[in-house]
């Protein structure tokens, strides 16, 4: 199982609106649909700091969760996330869209969305099905 952060509904809705706006703009610039949305909007915790998958410990040690920018990298549309845990800044990503068309990597927009409440959970992916296990709400000060 993977460890994920699931955003609170209002922040998730904000990102989905931004995702739609940027996908519309990108597809308009190509004159056809080449970028496609990715759902669900989840942040996979892939850094070594999260390998023990101890959700209560991670919850206790996270001091900041911010969405910094939206960019294109390796034919993927990504929200870049900064997580501060144990006074260390870690960069993670949220996949927002993808394309089969080769595109240059670039930052599309700078953001500074601070997320104060979110869920940390385990995710089991089977085919196209996502199952969330052991969710724990985290509320930052």
Radius of gyration using CA atoms only: 15 Å
How helical, in percent, are the residues?
Answer: 10-25%
Mean pLDDT: 93
| Number of E-type strands | 9
- Unreliable sequence segments: none
Q: Which structural class should the secondary elements be placed in?
A: alpha+beta
Return the string of H and E elements: EHEEHEEEEEE
Major sheet attributes: 5 strands, antiparallel
SS strand fraction: over 45%
- Number of helical stretches of at least 4 residues: 2
State the separation between the terminal residues, measured CA to CA.
29 Å
Shape: globular
Going across the major beta sheet, what is the strand order? Answer: 2-6-5-4-7
Structure commentary:
The chain is an alpha+beta fold and 141 residues long. The radius of gyration is 15 Å and the shape is globular. The strands form two sheets. A five-stranded antiparallel beta sheet has the order 2-6-5-4-7. The protein is built from two helices and nine strands; from the N terminus they run βαββαββββββ.
Please describe the topology of this protein.
Blueprint (H helix, E strand, L loop, with lengths): L1 E6 L1 H22 L4 E3 L4 E3 L10 H7 E12 L2 E10 L2 E12 L6 E9 L2 E10 L2 E11 L2
Antiparallel strand pairs: 1-3, 1-8, 2-6, 4-5, 4-7, 5-6, 8-9
């Amino acid at each position: 199982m993977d460890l994920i952060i699931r955003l609170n509904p209002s922040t998730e809705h904000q990102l989905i609106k931004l995702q739609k706006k940027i996908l519309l703009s990108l597809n308009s610039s190509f004159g056809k649909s080449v970028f496609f949305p990715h759902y669900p909007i989840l942040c996979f915790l892939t850094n070594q700091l999260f390998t023990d998958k101890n959700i209560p410990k991670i919850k206790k040690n996270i001091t900041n969760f911010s969405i910094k920018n939206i960019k294109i990298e390796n034919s993927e549309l990504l929200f870049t996330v900064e997580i501060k845990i144990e006074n260390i800044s870690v960069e993670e990503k949220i996949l927002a869209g993808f394309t089969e068309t080769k595109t240059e990597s670039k930052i599309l927009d700078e953001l500074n969305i601070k997320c104060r409440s979110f869920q940390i959970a385990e995710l089991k992916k089977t085919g196209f099905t996502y199952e969330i296990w052991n969710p724990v709400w985290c509320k930052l000060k």
